[in-house]
Specification:
Length: about 325
């Protein structure tokens, strides 16, 4: 137990260091933007005196490290700056990020369920026709871009001419789950599936490989030879040990999903982080782009740390390291 506490403590201590590094990297890269924040805020008709006063007021002429310290202080107080529309970036991100996070987690949940089922079946029927079929399907899913699959799903199942009309092609208004669960699930089903399928194809291969390696271990043959039913051995021991490896991949897949969600949101007209990034790029809004990028990067780091902690808790062998 003491070893486990030390391992968890190490990862938690590394978290603020990684967060600090990411904030500096994002701020440093965005500092090279050719856009003048003063002119963006005051408009093209602003006088040189007004522009200079704005720069002095917000410290835009200060050295990079000093500006970073001011930015870091504002971030700790929930201030990510002001967008070109004179709206706090923090409020925009606070409204948009939960929607993106929900879509990402739903996609990850669907991907994990599909990968667990098909990966286990493929391993149990190794080199037989179910394994061959799942292998072909998983490779096809892995090679399918999520944005292209989203367009196909809209054409096949969306409420457009020629489609089945089962699901909305565009999400006109975002309805929270707590207000109308049926409408919510109807709105997010196609986007979540479009996100999940490529990740499910990748995870299926990982689960299948881990299961095959675990099924070939001596303890499995010994347990089955001793008369314990195979399904009991697989359910109690093999599954738990085999799923340790896929858990380590989940953090990276989360990053893929949250990046893909940004594109999928634009396709389905979901007003979330994807729309914020599009608005920031089209308006050359440095503060908005910086706030959105930083939020996504921090979420990716936090999720990977959580996955590391989960890996430590699930895998008893690593606790002795």
């Amino acid at each position: 137990m003491n070893t486990l506490i030390r391992l968890v403590g190490r990862r938690l201590l590394a978290l603020p260091v990684m967060l600090l590094g990411v904030t500096f990297l994002v701020f440093f890269i965005m500092s090279f933007s050719p856009v003048d924040p003063a002119r963006l805020a005051l408009g093209e008709s602003a006088s040189p005196q007004a522009l200079q006063q704005y720069r002095e007021q917000y410290g835009l002429d200060d050295p990079l490290l000093l500006r970073y310290v001011h930015f870091l202080g504002g971030m700790f107080h929930g201030d990510l700056g002001t967008s070109s529309g004179n709206v706090q970036v923090t409020s925009l991100v606070a409204n948009a990020f939960p929607i993106t996070l929900q879509l990402t987690l739903l996609g990850l949940l669907i991907a994990v369920v599909l990968a667990a089922v098909f990966g286990v079946v493929a391993a149990l029927f190794r080199d037989q026709w179910p394994d061959q079929l799942i292998r072909v399907v998983s490779i096809a899913a892995l090679a399918t871009p999520s944005f292209w699959l989203a367009i196909l799903l809209i054409q096949w199942l969306g409420d457009i001419p020629g489609g089945a009309g089962i699901f909305p092609a565009l999400v006109a208004v975002w309805v929270p789950f707590t207000e109308a669960p049926a409408v919510y699930l109807n709105n997010v089903f196609l986007p979540a599936v479009a996100l999940a399928v490529p990740v499910a194809g990748s995870l299926t291969r990982v689960v299948r490989t881990a299961m095959v390696e675990e099924l070939d271990r001596d303890y499995v043959r010994t347990a089955i030879g001793a008369g314990i039913p195979k399904h009991v051995v697989v359910g109690r021991n093999v599954l738990r040990n085999a799923l340790i490896t896929p858990i380590t991949v989940l953090g990276l897949r989360f990053g893929y999903l949250i990046g893909g969600a940004v594109i999928i949101e634009i396709i389905f007209n979901i007003q979330a982080m994807g729309q914020l990034i599009l608005d920031g790029v089209t308006r050359n809004d440095v503060n908005l782009i910086q706030g959105v990028t930083l939020t996504v990067a921090l979420a990716f780091i936090v999720v990977n740390v959580v996955v590391d902690l989960l890996y430590v808790l699930v895998n008893p062998r690593i606790r002795s390291v």
